[in-house]
Amino acid sequence: MPDAITEPTTETTATGDAQGDPADLGDAGKKALTAEREARKAAEKAAAEALARIKEFEDAQKSEAEKAADALRTAQETATQSAAKALRYEVAAEKGLPLEAAARLTGSTREELLADADVLKTLIGNAPAPRPDLTQASARGSAAATGPEAEFAQFLKGQIG
């Protein structure tokens, strides 16, 4: 058995790195060392660019999540408003109010809307809906008699005799 295994000796630079003297490498070694250093710089640059793209993607995801949260909030508000509007119309129909009066009902619960509908119904009363004034028809007859059908009927009467 050998007494001791000898390690290859290397010189250390001022920073303590175990590197040999580049002058001892020869032309091929110098070219390889330069190529390796350039490749390391390119790899570090690519890694920095990749980290920047990852951060950009994460920021984009945050904004997408914020957009989704805003859309959800808007949809919930719209659904709440639509449900309240439908409830007002249901109460107005149940109490026999004109549907035009449904928008005037106030309250956040069905019971509050029912109570307000009772008050509004007493204020409106049971007045019948206004009827159209038939005396305001055109000189040629009623409004329905001025359409193309009426003109065609007049034409046929003139042709038939």
What's the layout of helices and strands?
Blueprint: H1 26-95, H2 110-124, H3 148-160
Helix pairs in contact: 1-2
Write up this protein.
This protein starts with 25 loop residues before the first helix and ends with a helix. The protein contains 3 helices and no strands. It is elongated. Helix 1 crosses helix 2. Helices cover 61% and strands 0% of the residues. It has 161 residues and is an all-alpha fold. The protein has helices at residues 26-95, 110-124, 148-160. It has a domain at 26-124.
Attribute tags:
mainly alpha, 161 residues, single chain, 0% strand
What is the structure about, briefly put?
With 161 residues, this protein is mainly alpha-helical. It has a domain at 26-124. The chain is built from three helices and no strands.
